[in-house]
Amino acid sequence: MSPRPPLTALYAFATVAQCGSLRKAAHELCVTPGAVSRQIQALESYLGFRLFERGAHQMELTPKGVELQARVGDKLASVAAEVSLLRRGGHKAVVRVDAGVTFAMHWLLPRLASFSEAQADLDVQLGTSGGPITLSTRVDLHIRRDPADLGDLAYQPFLEEWSVLVGSPRLLPGAPFSLPEIVKEIPRIGARSRPTLWSQWGAHHQIQSSFLEPTLEFDNTVLAIQAALEGLGVVVVPEIFVATMLQRRLLSLVDPQRVLTGHYSYAVRSRQENTAVLTFLEWLRGQAS
Fold this sequence. Notes:
By secondary structure, the protein is an alpha/beta fold. The chain contains ten helices and ten strands. The N and C termini lie far apart (53 Å).
């Protein structure tokens, strides 16, 4: 009887193929890079051919390596998911999501109730942070507007960000005024966390950015929106952050035109995409469409 394939080495191979480097794979597997390297060497010895071309910083799959990944990658992920389900027994599967504070507060959180109703056996643990992701945290899925914040992780855009100019109804003039007159006469609120929103809006309307410098500036969009609610000025802000306030007429559109100011992307951190993460991603994309 031929010897059985080394399953530990196969799992190490699949992780390196996904991560692209020994160091990242070792971090995912909670072992040393040397231990991962020995597993790869053992698998190559068993198979009789090379699986990777080793570069200075990257591990590139050979044609045989690509073939092996296609044959076993999904199967290993499926086995891992099934074992995880057995291990949990009657406990809920958990999806750990990390997103920006404002995005989580105004877009993701209001929608999570519908996910919980449809997927009672899945539990979403939502954490918030800003800027570059931290790989030391236990997270399955990161959501960011700036792809650079996702580091070396593969990412997928899923939601366009459209921004609008809004202000308190009691602040806006009743008589018709041109946009240049409005933004000149009424204080302009800015957010230091999103310094380009005014210039992006101005470029769309062919208004020079030098005329659009904020006259009131706050650290983030949460405070900038609150300032607009208090009647302190007008603000360019992502529409998804103020949709409910517009519906309730707490804020009004100064200009009906929306300006594309970015995209939101997700990046999966799980070692293998498990069933719970895939289910959440399908729901997330559906909410964005």
